[in-house]
Design goal:
The protein is α/β, with parallel strands linked by helices. Helix content is 34%, strand content 26%. The relative contact order is 0.10. Bound molecules: adenosine-5'-diphosphate, aspartic acid (ASP) and magnesium ion (MG). Adenosine-5'-diphosphate binds at residues 9-12, 41, 151, 172-174, 177-178, 180-183, 207-209, 253.
Amino acid sequence: MPILVQKYGGTSVGSIDRIKNVAQRIIEKKLEGNKMVVVVSAMAKTTDQLLDIAYQLSKRPPKRELDMLLSTGEQTSIALLSIALNELGHEAISFTGPQVGIKTTGIHTKSRISEIDGTRIQNALNEDKIVIVAGFQGINENDDITTLGRGGSDTTAVALAASLNAECQIFTDVDGIYSVDPRLYPKAKKLDTICYEEMLEMASLGAGVMHTRAIELGEKYNVPIYVSSSINNKKGTMIKESDNMMEGPAITGMAINNDEAMISLNHVPHNIEFIASIFDALAKKSINIDMISQTSPKNNQVSISFTLPKEDLLEGKEILNSYIHQYPEIHLTVHKEITKLSVVGIGMRSQSGVAAQMFMLLAEENIPIHMVTTSEIKISYVIQPEDQQKAIQKIAETFDL
Ligand code: ADP
Ligand code: ASP
Ligand code: MG
C-alpha cells in the first residue's frame, strides 16, 4: 500500500467543525487504499497567542522556553484530530516530533531537521493506524524540543514524505499557489505547476504559503509537493522539477514581504575589516541579512543599508550598538516599516530588460525605490508600504500575473 503524507495548516484545523472535516478527508484517502501519515499545525492563531503571552511576560523570552511553549500548539491539535478520527471508527495515533524521532540541529526557534528515524511511524502504519504527527517541531542533540521557524509544519511534511518515500500533499486555506498572494491581489492567477526553483524564491521572498525549507527538501529529495485547499476539491498546484519550457513568460510570480526592517548606517569608516566584523557578528546570531547596499567611499566614509527580519531587529540593533560605539560619528537609523516587492521567474534567464521595465513602471507611478537586488531569476525592490498596492496593481497588470 502506498504511503500518503498530508499536511493541514492552522486554519484548516482551526475549529471543531474544521477538525471533523479534516478527519473525513483523511478517512476518504485511507479508504482509497493509502497508509496515512498526517502532519498538522497548531489551531489557527494559537502560535501567535502563545507568543503574545510570552512577550507580555518578557521582552526577551529565552528561546529554549519559547520552543517548549510553541510546540504545545501542535501537541494540542494532533491529539484533537486523533480523537476525532477514533470517534469516527478509524484507529489513529498522535505523536510529537520527538516521539517519532525527528532530530533537529541549529539554534532554538530556527532549527533544521537533521534526520528522521521513521521506525515508530512504520510500526503504527503496519498496525493499520492513521498516524498524526505534530508539525514544526523536533528534538535536538541536547534532548531539548526545538521548533523549525514560523510556518515550519510544511517542512515536517516534506521531510517525512522524503524519508518514507511517500507522496506529499499540503492542504491550506487557498486552493493552490497563485502568481501573487490572492489576499493582496484578488485577480491573481492560480498556477497549475511551479518549479522548485521559482517556488523557493517566492517562499524565501515572502510568499508565506510555503515554508522555504520545505521547498529546499522537496527539490533535494525530488518530492513533488501538491498544494490545495482543505475546504474544497478544486485542482491545486504541483511544485515539481522544471519541465524546461522554452518560451515561458519572463515573470511567473510576485512576492511581497512586510516582515523585514531596514537599518541604515551613515558615516561608517571605510574599513573593510570593521564592516565585515559587523556582518559576521550578525551571522553568528543566525540573523539572516537579506539585501545590502553600500555607497562608494567619500571622505573615507561609506553609508550601508541592509534588511533583516523584524523579529531580529532588537537583537540586531544591540549587536550593532556594541560595535559602533567605538565610532561616535556613525549614525544608525531604523526603518521599521518597509515593503520588499520581488518578481520571480526562470524566464528572466533568457529574457533581458525586465529590470529596466520594472524601474520604468515604478517611475511612472512615482514610487521611490530604496534598495534593489537582483539574481538570475528574481529582482527585489524595497519601497514604502504606502506604495505597495499601487506597485502590485501596476506590475501584475503589465506582466499579466
Ligand atoms: P497554513 O496555516 O495552511 O500553513 P498559511 O497562512 O501559512 O497557511 O499560508 C496560506 C496563505 O498564504 C494564504 O492564505 C495566502 O494569503 C498566503 N499566500 C501568500 N502568497 C501566496 C501565493 N503566491 N499563493 C497562494 N497563497 C499565498
Ligand atoms: N504553528 C506554527 C506557526 O504558526 C507552524 C505552522 O503553522 O506551520 O508558525
Ligand atoms: Mg503555513
